[in-house]
Write a structure and sequence with these properties.
Length: 569
């Protein structure tokens, strides 16, 4: 793709625009609102003969050579392009274009549909799943997709001793362990064997039923990488992704952009509609909106809710909302004093005004959260009530725990806009103010996005801000990922350990009766509510925006959607 010249010109022009726009910020960098030092690029585009381009021409202008190149602006860079070894949404947004799973979800729901498998069968006892694979499919490197490729990938994720597990290089597949009950050799690991029946038929034999096995097979975490690419690139596969998806990888400039181009041999006729996609990092929400309004980018996520009305009223732009399939939270590293005491955590729970946060920060696109699972999910416990905002009760609890004079604590805040929290920096300052009322002095700590994820997984933080968006429509993905003891130090950044909760979640994982599963999840939520290893803040309806020239874009509740059918007018 011939992007470099037009991008260079655009970057220089936008630098002038941003400096002019930020003149009243007392010299602070425009990215300071997000707490990030990422150098997000905003390109200003011009039409022929020096005339400013219209939004309808932006696709051609972005490419510089008449190609339809869609520019997707986001708040942070990807952590890794090896989908199974990360839980980062900024990563899956890109890998969704490169890779495909055996099954897929419908455009606007978690209803299952065919993916790389066109058909499947489940035995009456729920222990044998047979998948019939598409024929004539090739990976981006020209090698054949077949049943052996599927087995190679699952063996990689499930076995630390596997050639392609890359354990010595720091790779870990926490989502595999969460969704399939562990790894090879673990008592809870639900997959007994994987059998290649023939080139295009593969069989999964389970030790016990798993109520959401098919949903797992549609998750982007379990998409299929070319075995030849694993052999060629080894542990560098996270920077050299090779799948069967509609777009193939071209380049990655860290903290700036990832470039993809159309895969000409994609298995679906007429797709992708675009010639390529560029995922561009612009850390500040307002700067992304400026870039959108000036035609520099086509789609932006992390729209400030307060800006949604203006986008909706403008004929040149389109507003989108995702379903409230998430929650943002304040987490505690429960192994560290004084927040290793549940009474202290309950005190902080009473001191934070979640209703104020929802009202002030989300412009009607959020509701205060009670549980770490969305309200419309199986097993949501609606008998639990929001912790009342009660400073007097909070101070009583602190005194009971021996901290009547308060204490000092660090709060790590996200440097990027996330679907569940478009402005984490401001939310952190609200929490800082709330806790000062009960004598708790909060120091706000800022890190760039990839180090933030690495260090919080390692447990360096005290309090921290994050969130979770559902990727398969099942409550286990929320509760087990974030609060099961087996995931402490990976997706469980609270390092929360409760044997009773673990047992309830383990039982719910293998139960096939949905009413039984619902009751088990409700019981787990009651214990979590009392232990307060995290404070659910809000469930949000994330808002996004695009130029009106963007057609057929459908945001998925999981926050990662294929762009194969998107077109530019």
């Amino acid at each position: 793709m011939k992007l470099k010249f037009s991008f260079l010109v655009a970057m220089l022009l936008t630098l002038f625009l941003v400096l002019a726009a930020c003149g009243g910020d007392d010299g602070e960098d425009s990215s300071s609102d997000s707490g990030s030092s990422d150098d997000g690029q905003s390109e200003e585009q011009s039409g022929n003969d020096g005339e400013e381009s219209s939004e309808s021409e932006s696709g051609d202008e972005a490419s510089g050579d008449g190609e339809d190149i869609l520019v997707y602006a986001r708040g942070g860079d990807s952590e890794s392009l090896d989908f199974a070894s990360t839980t980062d949404g900024e990563s899956s947004r890109v890998t969704k274009q490169i890779y495909e799973s055996l099954l897929d979800f419908e455009k606007e729901s978690f209803e299952i549909k065919p993916g790389l498998a066109h058909d499947w069968e489940v035995s009456d006892d729920g222990l044998t799943y047979t998948f019939h694979l598409e024929e004539g499919v090739t990976f981006h490197d020209g090698t054949e997709f077949n049943a052996e490729a599927v087995k190679t990938n699952f063996d990689r994720w499930s076995g630390a001793d596997d050639t392609y597990a890359f354990e010595d290089e720091g790779y870990a597949y926490s989502m595999y362990g969460t969704m399939f009950g562990g790894f090879d050799g673990d008592e809870g690991h639900v997959i007994d064997s994987i059998n290649v029946v023939d080139d295009h038929q593969i069989e999964f034999q389970l030790k016990r039923p798993l109520g959401f096995f098919l949903q797992n097979m549609a998750m982007s975490y379990f998409a299929i990488t070319s075995p030849a690419a694993l052999e060629e690139h080894g542990a560098a596969i996270n920077e050299n992704p090779v799948g069967t998806g509609p777009f193939k990888f071209v380049s990655w400039e860290r903290d700036n952009q990832i470039e993809l181009e159309a895969f000409e041999d994609y298995r679906k006729d007429g797709q992708p509609k675009l010639d390529g996609v560029v995922f561009e990092v612009i850390p500040d929400n307002s700067s992304r909106l400026i870039a959108l309004n000036s035609g520099e980018v086509h789609i932006m996520d992390g729209l400030n809710p307060d800006d949604a009305a203006g986008v909706e009223e403008d004929d040149a732009t389109t507003l989108y909302t995702r379903a409230a399939n998430n929650f943002g939270y304040l987490g505690f590293q429960t192994e560290k004093e004084p927040i290793n005491d549940a009474t202290v955590r309950q005190a902080i729970n009473h001191a934070i005004n979640r209703e104020e946060i929802a009202e002030a920060m989300y412009a009607g696109y959020a509701q205060p959260a009670v549980n770490p699972v969305p309200p419309n999910y199986l097993g949501y416990n609606d008998e639990l009530e929001l912790y009342e905002y009660d400073l007097e009760r909070a101070q009583e609890l602190l005194a009971e725990a021996g901290y009547e004079d308060g204490f000092e604590i660090d709060l790590w805040t996200m440097p990027v806009a996330r679907p569940y929290m478009p402005d984490a920096e401001t939310v952190a300052t609200i929490i800082q103010s709330d806790l000062s009322e009960i004598g708790v002095s909060v120091n706000i700590v800022r890190e760039e996005w990839a180090p933030y994820l690495e260090k919080t997984a390692a447990g360096e933080q005290e309090m921290f801000m994050l969130g979770w968006s559902g990727t398969n429509g099942d409550p286990d993905y929320f509760l087990s990922s974030l609060l099961h003891g087996d995931n402490a130090g990976s997706s469980n950044r609270s390092f929360y350990q409760n044997d009773e909760v673990d047992e309830l979640l383990d039982q719910a994982k293998v139960a096939t009766d949905q009413e039984e599963r619902a009751e088990l999840y409700k019981q787990a939520q009651e214990i979590i509510y009392e232990d307060s290893p995290m404070i659910p803040l809000v469930h949000s309806e994330p808002v996004l925006a695009s130029l009106s020239s963007v057609q057929n874009y459908v945001p998925h509740p999981s926050t990662s959607e294929s762009l194969a059918e998107v077109e530019l007018e």
